Amino acid sequence: MSSVVSVLQGRKILLGVSGSIAAYKSAVLVRLLVKAGAEVQVVLTPAAAAFVTPLTLGTLSKNPVLQGFLKDERAGEWHNHVHLGLWADALVVAPASANTLAHLANGLCDTLLDAVYLSARCPVFVAPAMDLDMYQHPATQANLGRLRQYGNTVWESPAGELASGLSGPGRMLEPEEIVAELERFFS
Q1: Out of 86-90, 144-148, 177-181, which region has the weakest mean confidence (pLDDT)?
Q2: Which of the residues 54, 94, 126, 128 has the least number of beta carbons within 10 Å of its own beta carbon?
Q3: How far from 43 is each of 23, 70, 90, 106, 154, CA to CA, in Å?
Q4: DSSP 8-state code for residue 95
Q5: What single DSSP character describes residue 133?
Q6: How far apart are CA 4 and CA 110, in angstroms?
Q7: How many CB atoms lie within 10 A of CB 36?
């Protein structure tokens, strides 16, 4: 029996998780990436922690989840966002909430994820996830356009039923599809 080695084997993936109901899908995404042989480091925004726990993502990734700039405030230890941005083979922001998209598109930097993005030298992939009206708002569409202009890959948001009960674009790309997109990129 031959075993196929994934193109993600040994890849260093930074996964940024922002505050969207779709954050629950990040646990499945971490699991799939690790199963494909990737080393996954999760960066959780403060809003994301309301939707998915660091314990879950840390257990699945086998790495501590990074949430803020400081590791240990008393000791003055901090999470080096520049090092993280240089370490990664790819930064994947999934889900990318409207707020996080606005931060990334406009250079705002009050979360660790924002700082990592601004320091990243690796390819950046963004999977938007929000309600229909938020997704279709001209400000959000402008932010998505700006992120594309910066050279980031913005995955289209598929249409379907949303948490609000509305139907349309705004869903996060499914974890299996994100892994497939990354495999295509690294092939």
Answers
A1: 86-90
A2: 54
A3: 12, 13, 13, 19, 19
A4: E
A5: H
A6: 42
A7: 18
Task: Summarize pLDDT for 13-63 with one digit per residue, the tens.
Answer: 999 999 999 999 999 999 999 999 999 999 999 999 999 999 999 999 999
- The two structure tokens encoding residue 147: 């992120």
Distance CA 110, CA 94 (A): 18
pLDDT at 1 over 50: no
**Residue in this structure with the two tokens 């109901």, named with its chain if needed:** 21
pLDDT above 90: percentage of residues in the chain: 81
Let me know: does 108 contact 143? Beta carbons within 8 Å: no
Supply the mean pLDDT for the chain. 92
Q: Would 98 be classed as within a structural domain?
A: yes
Domain assignment of residue 91, given as a range: 12-186
Tell me how long the chain is: 187
d(CA 66, CA 113): 9
Number of domains in the chain: 1
CATH code: domain of residue 145? 3.40.50.1950
Q: Answer whether residue 49 is part of any domain.
A: yes
Tell me the three state secondary structure of residue 74. coil
pLDDT value of position 84:
84
In a domain, 3, yes or no: no
d(CA 48, CA 30): 15
Strands 90-96 and 124-128: parallel
